[in-house]
Write a structure and sequence with these properties.
The chain is mainly beta. It has one domain. Strands 1-2-3-5-4 form a 5-stranded mixed beta barrel. Strand 5 and strand 6 form a beta hairpin. It is globular, with a radius of gyration of 18 Å.
């Protein structure tokens, strides 16, 4: 659902008001293909793919977003998921994207070689929660004014219902306990001591 917000900017010589309309996408999806992109022009940046779930829980469809990870907290959390993604574990996240756009490309190999494809792109602004192989390892503490948070689903997406909610874990989980240390994917947030 689009969320309109208003920002005011000031210049040094005169005062001007500019209104911005922000389009955000919030959802649940699988985190994949975490990588550092080093463009020919500009600075390197962290990127990932999110295969977002949509449709009925018993017949899920997926929409792939190619994302630039924005914001220090989102970058930190995505980097901590790198090892789990590389190990082919299922990393499911609650997310918020912004600055959506499309990009066309030409398939270079495979059955569709030479065909034009379309990629949905955006900026990953916020990670709300993370589950690795069905176990909640991170739950963001929602600010008092953020009443649109998507709770982590309690069950697998095939059996989940929209009314199910899962509280933040109270004990360390096996993944974080077994994988201690920053480079091993441990998460040290107050919201989930185990992540």
């Amino acid at each position: 659902m689009p969320i309109a917000s208003r920002r005011t900017t000031m210049t040094t010589s005169t005062q001007a008001q500019t209104t911005f309309f922000n389009l955000h996408v919030e959802g649940v999806g699988y985190l994949n293909r975490i990588r550092t992109v080093d463009p020919k022009r500009g600075d390197a940046f962290l990127a990932c793919n999110i295969n977002a779930l949509n449709g009925p829980a018993d017949d899920v469809s997926y929409t792939r977003f190619d994302c630039r990870v924005s914001g220090q907290e989102a970058q930190k959390l995505v980097r901590k998921c790198q090892q789990a993604v590389d190990m082919k574990k299922k990393v499911l996240i609650g997310f918020k994207l912004g600055d959506l756009w499309t990009d066309t490309f030409v398939y270079q190999k495979g059955d569709r070689q030479g065909e034009t494809g379309v990629s949905l792109k955006g900026r990953l602004l916020l990670v709300k929660w993370i589950k690795i192989n069905g176990e909640t390892v991170y739950q963001r503490e929602a600010p008092a004014s953020d009443d649109t948070d998507t709770p982590a689903p309690q069950a697998d997406h095939a059996t989940a219902t929209p009314s199910q909610e899962e509280p933040a874990p109270t004990q360390p989980n096996g993944y974080a306990a077994a994988q201690s240390g920053e480079s091993a994917g441990a998460f040290e947030t107050p919201a989930a001591a185990s992540f």
